[in-house]
Amino acid sequence: NVKIVSDNGSDDGIDVVRSKNVKIDECFIRSKDDCIAIKAAWDYPPENGVEKVRVSRSVFWNGLWGNGLEIGFELRANRLHDIVFDDCDVIHVERGAVFSIHNGDYAVVDNIRYENIRVEDARHKLFDFAIFLSRYSIDSPKDQEEVNKRYLHGAWDGVLSVPKDQQEKYAVNRGHIKNIEVKNISVINGPFPFSIIHGYDEKHLVENVSFENLTVHSQHIKNAAQGRFTIQNAQNINFL
């Protein structure tokens, strides 16, 4: 039952970092940056990841930075798993994604569930599940000029381009996203946001993602095109 109201830069609401058995319940969070961010930052042993987190019965308002319910970007651990977002209301996401998994490092992110969540005003993206090189990655270029030159502007913030002749080099520290269950998510007002599912390459995929009873403006989304999804380097993406 925590209430957070902020409009400052880099003001994540609640960050869950290298933790387990965490419960966030009956909270109100209005932040300019991520409302919830689950990550494995800093240089701790890779076995110290995140597991058994539940976020429920809460209300979120995300401002112009970050995302609503974020896993990432810094995922410097072997695994983040068994994370549940349930029975929440996302009343505004002014930019970024409502639901995001941004795997900028080598972790396996799996067994994630989003269920019974209402979305009222998502102005940019609904879902963004992606594996990439980012300026926060453990193997990001150290030279700031190089980072600025590679910076991708557009659908993502903080993501860096990888030249074709360097893709194998950067693949070493890329991870996986798999076994994601999305059930009873409703966009009940506001724009019709787009979504992205994007793996790094054919060996680092987003896989086994199910969308069951996803509705936008009372319309049941039964396929990627209908839901405004862009999908690349992914497999077993199902709409039910």
How many individual β-strands? 19
- Helical residue percent? under 10%
Mean pLDDT: 97
- Give the SSE string: EEEEEEEEEEEEHHEEEEEEE
Bulk shape: globular
Major β-sheet annotation = 12 strands, mixed
Distance separating the two termini = 34 Å
Secondary-structure content class:
mainly beta
The number of helical elements comes to: 2
Radius of gyration: 17 Å
Content of β-strand: over 45%
Low-confidence stretches: none
What does this structure look like?
This protein is mainly beta. The chain has one domain (about 5-240). About 5% of the residues lie in helices and about 50% in strands. The chain contains 2 helices and 19 strands. The chain has helices at about 145-150, 165-170; strands spanning about 5, 15, 20-25, 30, 35-40, 50-55, 60, 70-75, 80-95, 95-105, 110-120, 125-130, 175-185, 195-200, 205-210, 215, 220, 230, 235-240. Strands 1, 3, 4, 6, 7, 9, 11, 13, 15, 16, 17 and 19 form a 12-stranded mixed sheet that branches. A 7-stranded parallel sheet has the order 2-5-8-10-12-14-18, with no helix packed on it. A hairpin with a 2-residue loop joins strand 16 (about 215) and strand 17 (about 220). The N and C termini lie far apart (about 35 Å). The mean pLDDT is about 95.
Question: What are the key terms here?
Answer:
mainly beta
Brief characterization of the structure:
By secondary structure, the protein is mainly β. The chain is 5% helix and 50% strand. The protein has helices at residues 144-150, 167-171; strands at residues 3-5, 14-17, 20-25, 28-31, 36-40, 50-56, 59-62, 69-75, 79-93, 97-103, 108-119, 125-131, 176-187, 194-198, 206-212, 215-216, 219-220, 229-232, 234-239.
